[in-house]
Design brief:
four-stranded parallel beta sheet, single chain, Spore Coat Polysaccharide Biosynthesis Protein SpsA, Chain A, alpha/beta, 113 residues, 4 strands
């Protein structure tokens, strides 16, 4: 199973590094297959460069500003069975991914957390 992390970002240079580091740590902890998709929503700072420095992160551009448009672009680019919509200012707690995967495994009818 592939988990797609979709992270919309607009001028998030101060926070995106911590967000992506936490996602990467969760992927490493669980050993699950995952992709990280950062949607740059027209940033004028170094958000894009910071995201590109994270191994395995894919950065796509969404020129139409807005969270909805950015999330949509990320979801359309995602190839995962599960999509985790994560805000760029979020730092996942240790064990978050394992808890989410366990919830989906326990309840096959579950569609969102």
């Amino acid at each position: 199973m592939l988990v797609s992390f979709v992270v919309p970002a607009y001028n998030e240079e101060a926070l995106i590094g911590s967000c992506l580091a936490a996602i990467t740590a969760e992927i490493s902890r669980t050993g699950c297959q995952a992709e990280i998709i950062v949607v740059d929503n027209g940033s004028s700072d170094s958000t894009r460069q910071i995201a590109l420095a994270i191994a395995g992160a894919k950065v796509i551009d969404e020129p139409e500003r807005g969270l909805v448009q950015a999330r949509r672009a990320g979801c359309l680019a995602a190839g995962g069975e599960y999509i985790a919509n994560i805000d760029a200012d979020t730092v996942l707690a240790e064990g978050w991914l394992q808890t989410a995967l366990a919830a989906f495994a326990h309840s096959p009818d579950l569609v969102a957390l």
